[in-house]
Amino acid sequence: MPFPDPYKCKIRPSKHFVRDYMRRWNWDIEDVRIAISKANKIDKVGKSKYEIWTTHGGNRKLICVLYESEPREIFIISGAEG
Fold first, then answer.
1. Pair 65, 50: CB distance under 8 Å
2. Residue 76: other Cβ atoms inside 10 A
3. Taking phi first (over 0 means left), then psi (-120 to 50 degrees means alpha), and beta for anything else, what does residue 55 get?
4. Collapsing DSSP states into helix, strand and coil, what is residue 55?
5. Which is nearest to 45 in space by CA: 37, 53, 36?
6. CB atoms within 10 A of CB 44
7. Pure H helices in the chain
8. Strand boundaries in the chain, DSSP class E
9. Among 9, 30, 63, 71, fewest CB within 10 Å belongs to which?
10. What is the pTM of this model?
11. pLDDT digit string (tens) for 12-54?
12. How many CB atoms lie under 10 A from the CB of residue 62?
């Protein structure tokens, strides 16, 4: 099953991601949606955990969990640069 369209899902960032990464990268929720929609690579690394590599604003990696309940939700756990 492919990763869902981020514009059709609720996106909820963790406090850690907001405080450390979104602030440093000067991102908002719309930037997260753009980064996911333009991802270079999306790997499933667990039952519902994904690693998303993107070049939106530089080389970035997002670590998230996809909740399949209705409505679908993407919970962003953490990020990385480089």
1. yes
2. 23
3. alpha
4. coil
5. 53
6. 12
7. 15-16, 23-25, 29-37
8. 10-13, 41-44, 49-54, 60-67, 73-81
9. 71
10. 0.88
11. 999 999 999 999 999 999 999 999 999 999 999 999 999 999 9
12. 24
User: For residue 62, what are its two tokens?
Assistant: 């997002």
Query: Which amino acid type is present at position 67?
Result: Y
Whose tokens are 């979104």? That residue is 22
Is the pLDDT score of 66 beyond 90?
Answer: yes
In the block, tokens 């998303």 appear at: 52
pLDDT above 70: residue 1:
no
Cβ within 8 Å of residue 13, ≥6 positions away: 22, 29, 32, 75, 76
Tokens 């963790």 correspond to what residue?
14
